[in-house]
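User: quick one - fold this with erythose-4-phosphate bound?
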Amino acid sequence: MKYLIDSGDTEQIARICDYYPIDGITTNPSIVAKAGKDLKTLITEIRAIIGHEKMLHVQALSETADDIMEEAKRICDFSGENTYVKIPVTVDGIKAIKNLHKKGYKLTGTAIFTPQQAMLAACAGADFVAPYINRLDNISTNGIEIAENIHKMLSDAGLDTEVLAASFSNVEQIHMTAMHGVTALTISPALFDKMLYHPLTINAVHEFIANGSKYYNI
Ligand code: E4P
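Assistant: Sure. Structure tokens for the protein plus erythose-4-phosphate:
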């Protein structure tokens, strides 16, 4: 499983990277706005924490294919190696993915709500496609089923594009998405902690300490 942190909170990014097995960070314009920092400043701060071994997904905000392509170059200039440009799967977005892929960019098709959007992004050359699980669930569509369909379609078609499931609001959505074959998840810092929480684990640890500490003179 690839675990990514969906956040622009640098304190939380540092904490989660310190404790958990993390493969990268995802951001989007709303996450950048929440951090309240200029994009370049925020990305530089995140890179200072994570280095260049971990992936960093940075979203383009432009709307036309030409503008997205120019923005992708600027994003990669200041984000450095191992940067994935996130591009929403609009008509212009698909054109930009197709052309940027030919130039060797690493790309993530984002704002995905249907399997056909994901398939077009994958065929255009996206390395990852990001379906929004909770936003689908919020409109009475089964986000997990959509992610599963996308995963199956990509693998049936023999494409290397990976599903990077995004937009989770609870641990059950994460669990069910993982159960249906998805192997990359981007998760908020708070949900990482919730994934581990279990009162019986805490009780068990307290019990071990109470029983064993007298004998552990090591
Ligand atoms: C990440 O790639 C997405 O931009 C993000 O997960 C969207 O999440 P939200 O629906 O919680 O805003």
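One thing worth noting: The first helix runs from residue 10 to 19.
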